[in-house]
Amino acid sequence: MKNGIIPVNKPMGFTSFDVVAKCRWILKTKKIGHAGTLDPMATGVLPIFIGTATKACDMLPDNDKAYIAEFKLGIKTDTEDITGKVIKQDENVSVGKEDILSVIPLFTGEIMQIPPMYSAVSVGGKRLYELARKGIEVERTPRNITIYKLSLESFDEEEKTGKLYIECSKGTYIRTLISDIAEKAGSIATMTSLIRVKASGFSLSECITLDELSSMEDPYEKTVSIEKVFSYLPRIEIKGAQERMYRNGIRLSLKKMQFEKGESEYAVFGEAEFLGIATADYENDELIIKKNFYER
Asked: What pTM, to 2 d.p., does this model score?
């Protein structure tokens, strides 16, 4: 399969672009992209889109993500993770496991989060990280995020280190979440490691490493069909004359189709393959093509 997605386990030290470049070389293709950027220090789920599937990179749903993050109390860096410059230290941390557990409920559900200076958020036409590298700090507008699940998986009272499991909405900065939790508990902290264990409908157990991919006789063997990332959508199945009309860009009459009506967006399947995403316009009785993924 030359079109689809390969879920890669991004290695530490690689940028997301580095992974794309490596996959381009392994797969010997130019039409390739990725979804869900990860910082170089982070590892885990990074979906790589190939061929016609690259058209989905800019239209993925605001899917939820899951992470395992480790942290250390008593140290604060400018980047809020261990790769940054230490700007504050506390040699006598009094905060313990029970203190962390007591504030975790305050960070569950819908909360407001101020983006870190070292982030790709734009303010006044400038990326925050560009300003941060110049030593400039600007006021940032808090953004609404959702933390669906937040649990303290482990904590070492002596070392003052711990591990969190987080399920969250798109746009959540885990390093900032850790810093905010520590501050609310009465201390400071920095993130020491980050693993994304779920993204775009893929889990870490489904991912392949770059070394594994490069050693395969046929690396395309690991390609997953594009419809997986749209599996949350209800289906419309068409065939015969309807499928021919759809492929020719003709809007179909909803009344003449057999499907479970009521939703606004659908995944459209032909007799042999996934065709694309379409919008149901009930007022005008039309199925409007939003994006197709089949090869013409």
From this structure: 0.87
What pLDDT is attached to residue 124? 74
Say if strands 189-199 and 43-50 run parallel, antiparallel, or are unpaired: parallel
Q: Which of 218, 217, 225, 211 is nearest to 22 (CA)?
A: 211
Query: Which residues, other chains included, contact 291 with Cβ-Cβ below 8 Å and sequence gap of 6+?
Result: 55, 56, 59, 276, 277
Rounded distance between C-alpha atoms, residue 70 and residue 85, angstroms: 18
Q: What angle do CA 124, 129, 135 make, to 5 degrees?
A: 90
Domains annotated on the chain, with CATH: 4-60+203-229 (3.30.2350.10), 65-199 (3.30.2350.10), 233-292 (2.30.130.10)
Catalytic residues: 39
Amino acid (1-letter code) at residue 221: E
Mean pLDDT across the stretch 144-170? Answer: 96
| Amino acid, single-letter form, for residue 40 | P
**Nearest Cα to Cα of residue 131 among 116, 142, 112, 114:** 116
